[in-house]
Amino acid sequence: MFDASFWVAIAFFLFVLLLVFKKVPQIVLGQIDNKIKELKNKINEAEELKSNSEKLLSEAKSKLEKSDEENSNILAKAQKISDDEISASLEKMKISLENKEKAAQNKIEQAKNDAINQVKKVATKVAIETVEKVLTENLDSKKQEEINLSKVKQSIEKLKNIN
Fold it and tell me: Could you give the 3-state DSSP secondary structure of residue 55?
């Protein structure tokens, strides 16, 4: 009268009624809803993390740009300071060389003047000795007295003192 498939259908029907009676579909739907909520929360959390990471990335990029700008400014300032120091050092060196050149020229001028004065002294001494020798050798005693050798000697002394 009833075959096996009939009994399987009845068993299946009873099983479904039992599941409905025990509220299994609601529990399953609740579990599915919970999983959906979990997935939505994870998606929201992932989106929030993504927006935070994008925000952090943009902040890091702006900091990098600022540090690059600061680097450029520091390098420019350092270059300017270096150029100023170099120009100041060159100016000091130029002044120092000019002063040394002036000092050397002054020493040369002083040595030249000293040499000229020495030559004048030697020439005057030679001239005085020659005049004394000519007067003492070529004049007799009477003429020497007449000329008044002492006056000549005084004149010679004056000439010596001039040089």
Answer: helix
Q: Are 96 and 142 in contact (CB under 8 A)?
A: no
Q: Is 148 helix (H, G, I), strand (E, B) or coil?
A: coil
78 vs 16: which has the higher pLDDT: 78
Predicted confidence at residue 152, as pLDDT, reads 66
Q: Report pLDDT digits (tens) over 18-62.
A: 877 777 778 888 899 999 999 999 999 999 999 999 999 999 999
Computed from CA positions of residues 59, 63, 66, 68, in that sequence, does the dihedral angle turn out positive or negative? Answer: negative
Is 159 exposed, middle or buried, given 0-12, 13-18 or 19+ CB atoms closer than 10 A?
middle
DSSP letter for 22, please: T
Neighbours of 132 (CB within 10 A): 14
Secondary element (H or E) of residue 1: none
**Predicted local distance difference test score (pLDDT) of residue 140:** 66
Residue with tokens 């005085």: 128
CA pair distance 14, 5, nearest whole angstrom: 14
CA torsion sign for 141, 144, 149, 151 is positive
